[in-house]
Amino acid sequence: MKAQPAYSPELHNELKTALVRLYSDGKTESLSELQSRWPDRYERMIYNLKAGALELPQQRRTYDPNAEVWRRRVIAVLCAWIDNNKLVVESKTQYAKSIACQAANCALFNRIPVSRLSEIYNFYLKRNKTFSAANDIDYNQLKKADDFASAVKKELGFK
Question: Are 101 and 112 in contact (CB under 8 A)?
C-alpha cells in the first residue's frame, strides 16, 4: 500500500478499510475476513496493488509537448544525416526513428526521455555540420597544396 500514489501514513487504516470494502463489494471491512471468505477477491486485490507498485516510471509518463518538439528535431536531424550519407531506404522517418531507438537503447521512439533526445539531436547535428564542412573543401586548393608539398620534398631531397 505504501507504493500507491495517494498513500499517507496517517490515513493507513482508513485506506486499508476502504480497499477491503472496495474489493469485497461492501460485504466486509476486515482484511482477514476477506482473505478467508473470498480468497479470489483477496488475491485480485493483492495482484492489483502489486501491479501498481511494479509499474515503471516510463509507463506513468504523461504527455509532454516539449518532448514532441525534441522528437521532431531528432527526426529532422537524422533525416538530414540519411541524406548526407546517400542512404536509400523505404521510409526515412521510420529509419530515423529506428536509429534513435538504437542510440537510446529503447524499444519505442515515443518512450525516449527528453534528456536522451537532446543528446541524440546534438550528436547528429555535430555530425552533419562536420560532414558539410568536409564537403565544402575546395579540391583545387587541396591539389595546389599537394603540389606545393611535393615541390618542397623535391627541393629537400625527399622522395
Answer: yes
